[in-house]
Design a protein that fits this description.
It contains four helices and five strands, in the order E-H-H-E-H-E-E-E-H. By secondary structure, the chain is α+β, with helices and mostly antiparallel strands. It is globular, with a radius of gyration of 14 Å.
């Protein structure tokens, strides 16, 4: 798991990541964040195949497998989902100031979160 709560950590991750698809996604999110003036309002979390649900909760304060609204399990409440080459991108906005969590989820068979994205997200 890569927990990137600041723009500086996101910049470092772009330079350090060796997976080409993930590097491209991180670089795109970095550029979007800067272009939209959201440097202080974006938290990126890269969820890899072995990462536990509890580790995600520890990083961002909620589980993407449980609705933040009513606590129902396997009820998606993301604001945006998109499938990329080997990754899912989930966007969760929080409040009215523009803050968002961006979860980049490795699309691997052994990942319960990726399985959830495949079953509830758009087909591509």
């Amino acid at each position: 798991m890569l927990n990137l709560p600041t723009i500086a950590e996101l910049q470092v991750a772009v330079g350090a990541t060796t997976d080409p698809a993930l590097k491209r996604l991180l670089a795109d999110r970095l550029a979007d964040t800067i272009n939209c003036g959201l440097q202080e309002l974006t938290h990126v979390l890269v969820v890899e195949v072995g990462d536990s649900e509890q580790a995600i909760v520890d990083a961002v304060g909620f589980s993407p497998l449980v609705s933040r609204i009513d606590g129902v399990r396997n009820s998606p409440d993301w604001d945006w989902i998109e499938r990329h080459d080997g990754w899912w991108e989930l966007l969760y906005t929080v409040g009215n100031d523009g803050f968002a969590y961006i979860l980049l989820v490795e699309d691997a068979e052994r990942s319960p979160l990726a399985k959830f994205c495949r079953s509830e997200g758009p087909s591509r």
